[in-house]
Amino acid sequence: MTLNSGPEVGGVTGGRQLRRIRSIAGVRFRPIAFDRLVDELTGRIAEQPRDRRIAVAIDGAGGAAGAADPAGLADALVDPLRVAGRAALRVSAWNFLRPSSLRFERGRHDPDTRYEDWLDVGALRREVLDPLRPGGSGEVLPALWDAAADRAYRRARVPLPAGGVVLVDGELLLGQGLAFDLTVHLWLSPDALARRLPTEEHWALPAYARYERETTPAETADVVVRMDRPANPAVRE
Q: What is the pLDDT of residues 14-23, one digit of tens each?
């Protein structure tokens, strides 16, 4: 397992050897193939203590296409973790949004509301993270609110054994006081973010800019993956 270790040789994509260390704003990135990224993250998660349950956040811009979508990386980790002997449960923070009457109180396209009030942080903590803590029930609610239908899901709680892992994908997850054991941030430069987001989502760009400014996820996350070119990701050294 080599995340946050020294330079490593990447794969070959588009006829170019990805051997060099990339640098932006003083931060060094190591090119890595997506499959290798999954392997390294699996190894890092599997190294966590097996006598307790683990919560992992996969954080990135909502609506980002392809491999830059946090849900895709979270999904890709499930089977390798199970092979490694870790029960894995997927949870999406998009199923823990507030009702539309609260999310859209200042209009459907208010970036500050998206940043501050879309996610029901208390519900995500209560229903997903608190049960994983020592002394917790170990029973996780995988989904609470159907944002499209604007009504509650009727999901049963899922018991997670000791050593089990909950993989939570979502946006703007860091800096919320949520007790994750490992945080992974899929970072996009402003220009790449504008390209990857659907045009109808561009109203949210100021929310992501504020997140970068106030939370600095590219500095505070445990693992940072640059996704400007999702076919050629790179991991922060």
A: 333 333 334 4
